[in-house]
Amino acid sequence: MRRFLAGILVALVAVAIAAQLALPRYLSGRTEDRLEEGGGSSKVTLRAFPALTLVGGRGGSIEIAGTGLSFDAGDQSERPFERLDGFERVEVALDDLNAGPLAVDRFELGRDGRHEAYQLVIRATTTPRELAGELGSEAGGALGSLFGSLASGILPGGGSTALPLELAATVASDDGRVDVRDATGSVAGVPAGPVTEVVVSAVLDRL
Predict the structure, then answer these.
(1) What is the DSSP letter of 117?
(2) What does DSSP say about strands 118-126 and 186-187: parallel, antiparallel, or unpaired?
(3) What's residue 141's pLDDT?
């Protein structure tokens, strides 16, 4: 009987060790596949002990690096932070993204505690016409998009001149929803807050 129980114990320990090693790699790979749906490359690292907590969306840390990824700003979930909120430490660093109206050179998002707000930095270029059209569409459907296009037409170059954009923001999660607490930066007179919501939602929707 003792040998039988010892054998069961050894088997359980072996399964636990295998799960601890294999599960983070498997779930990281699944996330990488989603991020790369539109092209580009990514590297996702998940850490948790025990690893089974990852199944419930919780863990010690998530690190995401990527380049050349493409995101559709129209594909946005209602709670984009839902898959990040369960991690104690979050670090996202992406280069050369296509995110709707923005050509993003650098996207950084991170926090150091589960109950802390996220810190966000975006460096990108965009045209006033594309930006106004996207934000108008988000706010008011087709009419808003048309209005945005017409409004940007009075700008130099007909609103099609690419302009640099740099945003810095403190972003909190309100039950998974984007809550921009403080944001600095603007482009073509458009404040940072709405731009932040569009880009963050588009990127996190793939996680």
Answers:
(1) P
(2) unpaired
(3) 43
- What pLDDT sits at residue 9? 60
Six-digit token string for 181: 């607490």
Q: For residues 101 and 62, what is the distance between their CA atoms, to the nearest angstrom?
A: 27
Which residues of the chain register pLDDT less than 70?
1-16, 18-19, 73-76, 128-160, 186-192
Interatomic CA distance for residues 37 and 32, integer angstroms:
9
What's the CA gap between 90 and 44, in Å, rounded?
11
pLDDT recorded at residue 28: 92
Burial 26-58 (b: 16+ CB within 10 A, else e): ebbeebeeebbeeebebebebbbeebeebeeee
- Residue 14 and residue 127: Cα distance in Å, rounded? 56
8 Å CB contact between 137 and 145: yes
State yes or no: cis peptide before 191, omega within 30 of 0: no
Per-residue pLDDT at 157: 54
Q: Which two tokens stand for residue 106?
A: 């650098």
Structure tokens at 36: 């790369």
Using a 10 angstrom Cβ sphere, with 0-12 exposed, 13-18 middle and 19 or more buried, the burial of residue 151 is: middle
Structure tokens at 139: 């706010």
Q: Return the exposure string of 164-187: e unless at least 16 CB atoms fall within 10 Å of the residue's CB, then b.
A: ebebbbbbbbeebebebeebebeb
